[in-house]
Amino acid sequence: MSESKEQQLWDACTSSDLELVKRLASDSAVNVNWGDSEYDRTPFFRACGQGHVSVVQFLLKHPQVDVNKPNKDGATPFYIACQKGHKEVAALLLANTRVGVTQPMNAGRTPFYVACQQGHKEVVALLLSDTRIDVNKPENNGFTPFHMSSGEGQQGSGAATPG
Predict the structure, then answer these.
(1) Whole-prediction pTM value?
(2) Looking at the domain assignment, is residue 97 inside a domain?
(3) b or e along 20-29 (b: 16 or more beta carbons within 10 Å of the residue's beta carbon)?
(4) In a domain, 160, yes or no
């Protein structure tokens, strides 16, 4: 059985095959917001989680791509870029007005929170420079981003989200 075009698009975003992404995304029969069966990650989410800058740049311009569609755990493409420490992707997303940069995932962890938790200093610095980021917003258990980055935080308060 052959792969669907949506699966092919997802795989192309995973491997950073920009030419195949362009070809498939331009096909009006392809659902560009299709989610994988494991975590409901869209091709755009996958490109952000893998840190594929050129693919993210291209898909950000695609009018049908839902740049804020979360996976089954509530993590958005911006969240996953921050969690994985992909500073260039996070900067691209911060600069795009379509992207919701403050949306927390299901446990209440914000992109800033997870960047602190994972110790991604360059991403944290990038986020600190954006006035939309609430640096004191706690997650559901009351821990703030700075608590997570102050020693205990790197062990985290939950599992990582697959990219």
Answers:
(1) 0.89
(2) yes
(3) bbeebbeeee
(4) no
Exposed, middle or buried, 2 (CB in 10 Å: 0-12/13-18/19+)? Answer: exposed
Tell me: pLDDT of 155 over 80: no
Contacts of 10 (CB under 8 A, 6+ apart): 34, 36, 41, 42, 43, 46
Query: Looking at the domain assignment, is residue 161 inside a domain?
Result: no
Inside any domain, residue 163: no
Q: What is the Cα–Cα distance from 33 to 131, expressed in whole angstroms?
A: 29
CATH number at residue 131: 1.25.40.20
Q: Give the chain's mean pLDDT.
A: 90
Provide the residue range defining the domain that includes 136: 5-155
SS3 category, 141: coil
Of 120, 119, 114, the residue nearest 151 (C-alpha): 119
Cβ 161 vs Cβ 71: under 8 Å: yes
Q: How many domains does the chain have?
A: 1
